[in-house]
């Protein structure tokens, strides 16, 4: 009992500290992509972390992309200081980016097959890619150009919309739990449980103290997923204000894209600053050692595709799934087939 009381006191103290940090002026700190202010410019190679056998996605010894784009746990990124058109750690042109992404298809497909094969022998590991971002940031494009590199039969994709009346009758994580990937699968969430600390915060759909409580709930939920064999890859697609305007105008200019346009997107742009702050708080409070956030500059679609493909490759290589060994006599089976 004493141990539980100590934990509760620590949790309450931590919550108060988080509230003070949220109210305090923003500090001059940001996620690591801030070090890249110009397209094509990258960080200097640093000491590699525990990212698997190879330090770079191509085995070159370069710093792993997940180190470059990772939001440091407990630090609040200033999104306004992060260049959404930057290309940290990536190719230097659209053509080179498209070529590099195409080259990732074979290793990603092989890793996915090994992951699924391992599950047939009882391996419970799986991957969950969480995509969050402002409207037009490229969640749908990622599904088309990145997830398209995988075998669709091994993927479980879910786009979360406004909750239904049934979903509203349950705790906010209930509908998320229904869509989790099964062992051997790669799950992709187009929006996610983070909507409940983003739009719910900006539009004041629930009391602010309930939103604050949800950050801790999310962290516990994601830690439980990781403990159960889920590799959680959370990506914030960082698009610029002017780039979003340009993409919305493109939809208006092309009648074939009118179906993608929502008049409500204009109203949401009016709350841009509030959404950026909501994302900053969510990234700060929910980027953990177990399930860190990655900020991917998304103004350049080709870089976005390459970066997310590379992040997935790095995580799958770190899992290093193996084909299970057969439980039969190979030579005996060969003999019988040849004899028949």
Shape: globular
Assembly state: single chain
User: What structural class should be given to the helix and strand makeup?
Assistant: alpha/beta
Beta content: 5-15%
Describe the structure.
The protein has 14 helices and five strands. The chain has helices spanning 2-23, 65-69, 94-103, 105-119, 139-145, 165-168, 174-177, 195-202, 208-227, 241-253, 264-269, 272-286, 301-319, 330-339; strands spanning 126-133, 155-159, 186-190, 230-238, 293-297. 46% of the residues lie in helices and 9% in strands. It has 340 residues and is of the alpha/beta class.
Concise synopsis of the structure shown:
This protein is α/β, with parallel strands linked by helices. 46% of the residues lie in helices and 9% in strands. It has a five-stranded parallel beta sheet, with helices on both faces.
Strand and helix map with partners:
Blueprint: H1 2-23, H2 65-69, H3 94-103, H4 105-119, E1 126-133, H5 139-145, E2 155-159, H6 165-168, H7 174-177, E3 186-190, H8 195-202, H9 208-227, E4 230-238, H10 241-253, H11 264-269, H12 272-286, E5 293-297, H13 301-319, H14 330-339
Parallel strand pairs: 1-3, 1-4, 2-3, 4-5
Helix pairs in contact: 3-13, 4-13, 8-9, 8-12
List its salient traits.
340 residues, 5-stranded parallel sheet, disordered N terminus, alpha/beta, 9% strand
